[in-house]
Amino acid sequence: MLHDLTLEGHGTRLVPLADEHAEPLSAFVDDRLWAGMSSPTPDTPAAMRTEIRAAHEAPSRLAFAVLDSATGEVRGSTSFYDWEPRIGRVEIGYTYYAPRWWGTTNNPACKLLMLTQAFETWGCARVALRADARNARSIAAILRLGAVPEGVLRSHRLAPDGTRGDSAYFSILPDEWPAVRAGLEARLSAAR
């Protein structure tokens, strides 16, 4: 869905994903980074524009470009999706960053901004995250957030080559949010 939500803090700025982000995103996206996604690797600006259009056409997805707030450099992308305001739930995903941002404060900053929006502005009762069950790096990052493992949905994912994969699900509930927030803030403070 097209939206105008912008989130900023801790050196990171999330802005609505737009065609202008296609070229810098496609410059670092490769098969290794895109592993576990359900669409072909968008490693050209044209292919990335197709991904961006798909994000805009999804009715309950708010897609963001992740920028360095000081330089404007495009670090990656992330989204809220399956947003159900009436029910009070949302998922965070479609997340990928340039490898140079892996293991930095980038992901904790993004998740702190997004989880704050979900719990403190929207009043969500549940925020879920999921990853391909084979993606150990993403699962480790989700667990470092403090998200609670819920289980694995078997044969839940379809890869571009037609193979099927499992999805590992995690969630954070409102009573868990203060501890998750404190953990993210501590990680960001320690990095300063």
TrEMBL record:
Residue intervals passing through the bilayer: none
Protein's name in the database: RimJ/RimL family protein N-acetyltransferase
Family annotation (Gene3D superfamilies): 3.40.630.30
PANTHER family according to UniProt: BLL6696 PROTEIN, N-ACETYLTRANSFERASE DOMAIN-CONTAINING PROTEIN
Stored SUPFAM superfamilies: Acyl-CoA N-acyltransferases (Nat) (SSF55729)
Domain N-acetyltransferase positions: 13-147
